[in-house]
Write a structure and sequence with these properties.
2 copies of one chain form a homodimer. Chain A is α/β, with parallel strands linked by helices. Chain A has one domain: Cytidine Deaminase, domain 2 (3-Layer(aba) Sandwich), CATH 3.40.140. A 5-stranded mixed sheet of chain A has the order 2-1-3-4-5. In chain A, helix 1 runs parallel beside helix 4. At the A-B interface, helix 2 and helix 3 of A face helix 2 and helix 3 of B. Chains A, B: It comes from Rhodonellum psychrophilum GCM71 = DSM 17998. Chains A, B: Belongs to the cytidine and deoxycytidylate deaminase family. Chains A, B: This is tRNA-specific adenosine deaminase.
Chain lengths: ~150, ~150
């Protein structure tokens, strides 16, 4: 896979989602990229941390801010395998992320179910990269959970 | 002040907001109460932690979950001096908080500007306790910041 492309970064986020899957977490993964470099990687850890706020995006935003020493991330791009929820969209807003690329849509809890305007007006948004793989991983997880 | 009343708990949250003020943070404070006991206290620490996700509610929800060893907080009440933003309302949703009592409304960034339905349907909501004091503290902070 060609380096430094959206597809490459989303695949890195997907690798994080697979780690979440292996650890019994709802499989969602994220990376944050700044000037082509991945400065944060995270996956959902709500079970391990016993903390509903430990979504992949939240952890990735916190880690990216630590890496840069800045609360605001206008020069950063977030790659996340699933559409952010309202909480995570709110965090994206506050961080003023430059770009958000999400994979699968979340028709139940995705922020766009509430409003397209939860993100910062300067944030560029795209979706659909590796959507099918990300959705299949989630479906597989919930199917396993039910059995 | 009478113990174990909403006014008492909100005053404890307000004490947290005053600590935030003294530390140069936007002065918002929170406590989480479970079976009459305060199990978490927190104030906004976005500056100190260089982290936009470090709102008082987020820190309080994480701390309360740690204290109880449970991600979900249906038997808990959150007292927060300012109306939660979208991010924090999303966290409140996921935690299934039993009650939320907020002080001052936030006409710019309060979740109710977006939708009244961001909270969990089982969460009881009230507002207005110590609203004037909480707003004055915020106004004082921003006035000082501008000078």
């Amino acid at each position: 896979m060609e380096l430094y492309t959206d597809a490459y970064y989303m695949n890195e986020a997907f690798k994080m989602a697979k780690i979440a899957f292996e650890e019994g977490e709802i499989p969602v993964g994220a990376v944050v990229v700044c000037r082509k470099k991945i400065i944060a990687r995270a996956y959902n850890q709500t079970e391990k941390l016993t903390d509903v706020t430990a979504h992949a995006e939240m952890l990735a935003i916190t880690a990216a801010a630590n890496a840069l020493g800045s609360k605001y991330l206008p020069e950063c791009a977030l790659y996340i395998t699933l559409e952010p929820c309202v909480m995570c969209a709110g965090a994206c807003f506050w961080s003023q992320l430059g770009e958000i690329h999400y994979g699968a849509s979340d028709p139940r809890r995705g922020f766009s179910q509430i409003s397209q305007y939860l993100l910062h007006p300067k944030t560029k948004l795209s979706s659909g990269l590796m959507a099918e793989e990300s959705k299949q991983l989630l479906d597989h997880f919930f199917k396993k959970l039910r059995n």
